[in-house]
Structures are given as structure tokens and as C-alpha cells.
Design brief:
The structure holds two protein chains of two kinds. By secondary structure, chain A is α+β, with helices and mostly antiparallel strands. Chain A is built from 15 helices and eight strands. Chain A has two domains: 53 residues, no CATH class; 318 residues, Orthogonal Bundle (Cytochrome-c3 Hydrogenase, chain B), CATH 1.10.645. In chain A, strands 1-2-3 form a three-stranded antiparallel β-sheet. In chain A, strands 6-7-8 form a three-stranded antiparallel β-sheet. In chain A, strands 4-5 form a two-stranded antiparallel sheet. In chain A, α2 packs antiparallel against α3, α3 packs antiparallel against α4 and α4 runs antiparallel to α5. The longest helix of chain A has 30 residues. Chain B is an alpha/beta fold. Chain B has two domains: 129 residues, 2-Layer Sandwich (Beta Polymerase, domain 2); 34 residues, no CATH class. Chain B contains six helices and eight strands. In chain B, β5 and β6 form a beta hairpin. Chain B is elongated. The N terminus of chain B is likely disordered. The chains are: A alpha+beta, B alpha/beta.
């Protein structure tokens, strides 16, 4: 059993090069690495023998900063990790601190949180789809995807004034009441969006070039995925039907009906299908949620100075990229003693080496894209 | 203004001799509670003794040192020497097949300053379990890379941030910070404004990265 697990990551530089082998550098300034990721590739001709990711270019010491801020002060910082899914980051952090305090957000806040987080998932997947297709050579989906993403960002802007780093939620609930037209805006977006997804699929799903570039590329088996701690759409595309929204429901997810799409082959194409289907499911969740937003307060009574009792908590949510976990240790002061952020991108990126071996240099771009990393979150 | 700078200079040495002896006594205690040392060992909210813990205890005896429940989350404190066996048992027998997270917490005033935290998840049981290991400053922790592949980068990060040595790790090098960086930033005695000024000067050509 132990033999089949992928546990060795030989250092590219220290391995001996064969007669036909060379080491090349990709990044950190390369458009298809989605930020400042540097990859060292050991090549045999056009084939990748192995690889090594060099990360840390965006390291800002978020976990250290957390120890020197109060619980509320730290909340805006989490938006800057996965900056294309700031709402999800905020949800995970707020819920983790609430758990630490033993408090719970009121039902109205939980439903509004769910709506915004699902919109954020769609926005994150749209950004992924557009750039991923662009990397592979399909230019059109980028414009389509950004068009719809813009609509979501407009809803965020109307709700809290910010588009990207929203700081939409507060510990204990919400600061802002939903604006009058929120339901209408979300409904209009969801109605339109159904046809838009069909448009993307028209462009890609049966496209011969797309199939050729993604089928059988970067295969990750379910066992490898679990061993490497991979979560989110990448894990589901390998056939593991696991989603924290179902397994350990948070916010208001237990109230809504939705499916967990899974893939069969664990290749780049399946990951594409899984994410597209997830957008459909997120759309359905939004439509269900706006039907019935309960009335009532939006903020729990937790006081202004937060001093959670001594202890620790781990809370994780299903962020667009995978399991986003917060492990917080409290020493009953206003500042957390330790905040550990379990970033999905960092852990998923580790599987890159397993996925890339034996493929061509051109596929490296497809595989980086298919993991869906954000370097702000990898490096924190 | 230069005269002002000159004026304070003679005044400064005069002040410290008078203020220095009481200062450490006066300044440190108010700071210490904020940093947390008095709450060194978190109290065990609820001792845990369910079937799971009993199975672990019957298998590993005293290697399972403590078990408690904090915010309804199960925590096992285990012996450092037997970590790999316990990890293997957790994966194969108890079906905690995924290592969700591996990290550390620094308690500098304690005899064994580091807590190494392993967050496990079981798909079959839909359950989480947290393993904790204590380690002193220079004590190596056995690496669990042979049990879960994901531990590779996670242990490298813990090494990078805390300077914890993982014995048996295939490639224990820094992962987020530059290879030549001095110091481990998430240790409590590493101030938030501290940095490797020599590295910054040499590589970035500036005096300070702040």
C-alpha cells in the first residue's frame, strides 16, 4: 500500500541530469503561472521528467500579522489571501471566530452570507474558466466570463461598496443590511446566467482543440488526491464525492438542495466539467436562498471587545478552490494567540509535480491552470 | 533639528541609569499577559474518553498522554516518539485517510515550547481528529511524509516558520522564505518588525523592507 503513494519530491537541481536532459525555469514572471509562481522543469526533450515549484514571492506573513491584531482588525487581511474569492475567506474566518466564541450568526445573516458566498464561487470559477481557456489558446471565453463576473462584482459593490476585497461579513453576522434590490439583482443574474453557461459550453465542451488539450492531461487518481490532501473541485474530479457544504454544513447550506458534481478520470477535462457544473449548482442555491430570506437581526449580540475563552478551534469551509481552514488558538485576550490558515491553493499546488510528470511543456500551462491557484493564498 | 538631537543625547544616557532597573520590572509584566504566557497550558475543557480514545489507549497505552474535547473537537496529545506508528494506525485502522493540516504553535515559556498539530479527517466516518505532539527547542519530530504525502510541504512550512526539525523528511528546506534567511518568523520571540536586515540589504538593495 505504501509503495503506491506518491511521497517523494526529488529536488530538481540536485538530481543528476541525463545526456538529453535540461532544466528550464518558468516564471515567476510568466502570464500563465497566474501570479508569481516559479516552476523549475527538468525536461527530456519536450517531456517533463519532474518539476519543483518555487513559491513565497508574495509572502506577507499574514499569520504573524494576525497575532498582533484584534480579532476584528484581522478580518480585512483574510480578503487579501485569495483575492478573487474574498467573500469566502471572510466567511471562513468569521465563522471560525464565532465558533471560538461559542456564538452563532442570526439566520438572516447566515442566508445573506450564503447568497454572497455562492455568487463569489461563481465569480471565482468564471475567472478561472476565462484565464484557463486563455492559457490553452481560446481567447473568446475570457471576455464572456469577465462580462458575467462584472455583474456579480456590481452586486458586491451595491452591497458593501467594494468589488474585490470586500470585507463583506463581520464576526457575529453582517454589518450591512441587504439593499432593497438584492433579491431582484441576484434573480436577474441567475436567470441570465443559465444561458451564459450554455454559451461557454458551446465554445468549449465539444471543441476538438479543447478536448485535445485537456483530455488525459494531468491525471490524478482518487488515492493520490487523498494522499496529497487535495480538496475542492480537483478532488471531486478524481471521483471523490466530498464537499464540506454537505459533509459538515455551515452558514445556511443545510437548507438548500444541490448536487455535488464529480468526475471520473481526474484529468483536466473532468475538472473543467466539475467546475462548470458547480457554477450551475451555485446558481440553484442562490435562487433557492433568495426565495426566503428570513427577517430579523443581522448581528448576534457578542459585544464590542472579543475575548474568546481559552482554547482552540478548527473550522473550515468549502472555498471555491477547496478546503479553507482556520485553526485559531485563543489565550483569552483580544488578540488571537495563533491563527493558522489552511489554504487550499497551497496544498493543491503540491500535487502539481505528480500531475505534470510525463507531459509536454505545453501541458504544464494547462495543468497550472486546472489546479486553480491564487498565489496570494499560496504564499499568504 | 541638529541642536535638538544634540540635546537629547546627553539627556538620554542620564535617563536610562535611573529608569533602567525599574523598567524591565515595570514594562515586562503588563506586556506578558497580553502575549499569553500566564495561560501557558490551556485548561482541558472536557476530558474525552469515548470508544475512539479507548481504542487508541488499548493499542498505544501511555503513548496517548491526554485526550480532551474543545468546542466539540477531539484532541489527542500523543508521544513524540510514537507519532509515526500512531499516524499509520490512524490512517489504516481508524480510516483517518486525509491529513488536512499540519502546523505548530509556539509556547516559549513552556519546557517543551512547540505544539505540533495534525488535523486529520476521515471520509468514511466524516469526522475530524486532532493529534498534538510536544517538542522542545532542539528536539526533532518524526516526519509523517511516509504516511501522508501532503505532509511534505506542510512540514517544510512548519520548519520554515518555526524551525522545527522533522526527522526523515526527504527535502526539509525553507518553502516560503528565501533559503538564506535567518530566523523563524512565527516564533513568539521573533518580533513582528524583525527581519533579516543583512539579507534584505544584500538582495533587495534597500535598508529595510518595512
Amino acid at each position: 500500500m505504501a509503495d503506491t503513494r506518491t511521497t517523494s519530491f526529488p529536488n530538481v537541481e540536485t538530481t543528476v541530469l541525463g545526456a538529453d536532459e535540461i532544466v528550464i525555469n518558468m516564471g515567476p514572471q510568466h502570464p500563465s503561472t497566474h501570479g508569481v509562481l516559479r516552476v523549475k522543469l527538468k525536461l527530456d526533450g519536450e517531456k517533463v521528467v519532474n518539476s519543483e515549484c518555487v513559491i513565497g514571492y508574495l509572502h506577507r506573513g499574514v499569520e504573524k500579522i494576525a497575532e498582533h491584531r484584534s480579532y476584528q482588525q484581522f478580518a480585512p487581511y483574510v480578503d487579501r489571501m485569495d483575492y478573487v474569492a474574498a467573500v469566502s475567506n471572510g466567511l471562513g474566518y468569521c465563522e471560525a471566530v464565532e465558533k471560538l466564541l461559542g456564538a452563532e450568526a442570526p439566520p438572516r445573516a447566515r442566508v445573506i452570507r450564503t447568497i454572497l458566498t455562492e455568487l463569489q464561487r461563481i465569480a471565482s470559477h468564471l475567472l478561472w474558466l476565462g484565464t484557463h481557456a486563455l492559457d490553452i489558446g481560446a481567447l473568446t471565453p475570457l471576455f464572456y466570463c469577465f462580462r458575467e463576473r462584472e455583474e456579480i462584482l456590481k452586486i458586491f459593490e451595491k452591497y458593501c461598496g467594494a468589488r474585490l476585497t470586500t470585507h463583506a461579513f463581520r464576526i457575529g453576522g453582517l454589518q450591512y443590511e441587504a439593499y432593497d434590490e438584492l433579491e431582484k439583482d441576484v434573480e436577474r443574474f441567475c436567470k441570465d446566467f443559465e444561458h451564459k453557461i450554455a454559451e461557454y459550453e458551446d465554445l468549449l465542451t465539444q471543441n476538438r482543440i479543447w478536448l485535445g488539450r485537456t483530455k488525459g492531461i494531468g491525471v490524478l487518481t482518487a488515492q493520490q488526491a487523498i494522499d496529497l490532501g487535495v480538496t475542492g473541485p480537483v478532488l471531486r474530479a478524481s471521483g471523490v464525492k466530498w464537499d464540506i457544504r454537505k459533509a459538515m454544513p455551515y452558514a445556511a447550506y443545510d437548507q438548500y438542495k444541490f448536487e455535488i458534481p464529480t468526475g471520473r478520470n481526474g484529468d483536466t477535462y473532468d475538472r473543467y466539467l466539475v467546475r462548470v457544473e458547480e457554477m450551475r449548482q451555485s446558481r440553484l442555491i442562490c435562487l433557492q436562498a433568495i426565495q426566503n430570506i428570513p427577517a430579523g437581526p443581522i448581528m448576534a449580540r457578542i459585544g464590542k471587545v472579543l475575548k474568546p475563552p481559552v482554547g482552540e478551534v478548527y473550522h473550515s469551509i468549502e472555498a471555491p478552490k477547496g478546503e479553507l481552514g482556520y485553526y485559531i488558538v485563543s489565550d483569552a485576550t483580544i488578540q488571537p494567540y495563533r491563527v493558522r490558515i489552511r489554504p487550499p491553493s497551497f496544498v493543491n499546488l503540491q500535487a502539481f509535480d505528480t500531475m505534470v510528470r510525463g507531459h509536454l511543456v505545453a501541458d504544464v500551462v494547462a495543468i497550472i491552470g486546472t489546479i486553480d491557484i491564487v498565489l496570494g493564498e499560496v504564499d499568504r | 533639528m541638529p541642536p535638538a538631537g544634540g540635546e537629547t543625547k546627553p539627556a538620554a544616557p542620564a535617563a536610562p541609569p535611573a529608569a533602567a532597573p525599574p523598567k524591565p520590572a515595570a514594562a515586562v509584566p503588563p506586556k506578558a499577559p497580553a502575549a499569553g504566557p500566564p495561560k501557558e497550558a490551556p485548561p482541558k475543557p472536557e476530558p474525552l474518553d469515548n470508544e475512539l480514545v479507548k481504542r487508541y489507549r488499548s493499542r498505544f497505552g501511555n503513548a496517548i498522554r491526554e485526550a480532551w474535547l474543545d468546542r466539540k473537537q477531539a484532541i489527542l496529545v500523543v508521544d513524540r516518539g510514537q507519532l509515526v506508528e500512531i499516524a499509520k494506525y490512524s490512517r489504516d485502522e481508524e480510516k483517518f485517510d486525509m491529513l488536512t493540516d499540519l502546523t505548530a504553535v509556539d509556547w516559549p515559556k513552556r519546557e517543551k515550547r512547540f505544539d505540533i498539530i495534525l488535523n486529520l479527517y476521515s471520509f468514511v466516518k466524516n469526522e475530524r481528529l486532532r493529534l498534538k505532539v510536544h517538542a522542545g527547542e532542539n528536539e526533532p519530530v518524526p516526519s509523517v511524509t511516509g504516511v501522508w504525502g501532503v505532509a511534505n510541504w506542510l512540514e517544510r512550512e512548519a520548519f520554515d516558520m518555526f524551525g522545527i526539525h522533522f526527522e526523515g523528511h526527504p527535502n526539509l528546506t525553507r518553502i516560503l522564505l528565501p533559503e538564506e534567511w535567518q530566523g523563524h518568523p512565527l516564533r513568539k520571540d521573533y518580533d513582528i518588525l524583525t527581519q533579516d536586515t543583512a539579507w534584505v540589504r544584500e538582495n533587495l538593495g534597500i535598508e529595510s523592507g518595512q
